[in-house]
Amino acid sequence: MPVRIPDALPATSTLEGENIFVMTETRAMHQDIRPLRVLLLNLMPTKIITETQIMRKLSNTPLQIEVELLRMASHEAANVSPEHLEAFYRTFDEVHSERYDGLIVTGAPVEKLEFEDVDYWKELVDVFEWSHTNVHSCLFICWGAQAAIQYFYNVPKYDLPAKCFGVFGHRLLKATSPLVRGFNDVSYMPHSRHTEVRYEDIVANPKLEVVSYSDEAGPSIVKSTDSRHFFVFGHPEYDHDTLKKEYDRDVAAGLEIAVPVNYYPDNDPSRDPIVQWRAEGQLLYTNWLNYYVYQTTPYDLNEL
Question: What CATH class has 32-159+194-239+289-303?
Answer without folding.
Answer: alpha beta
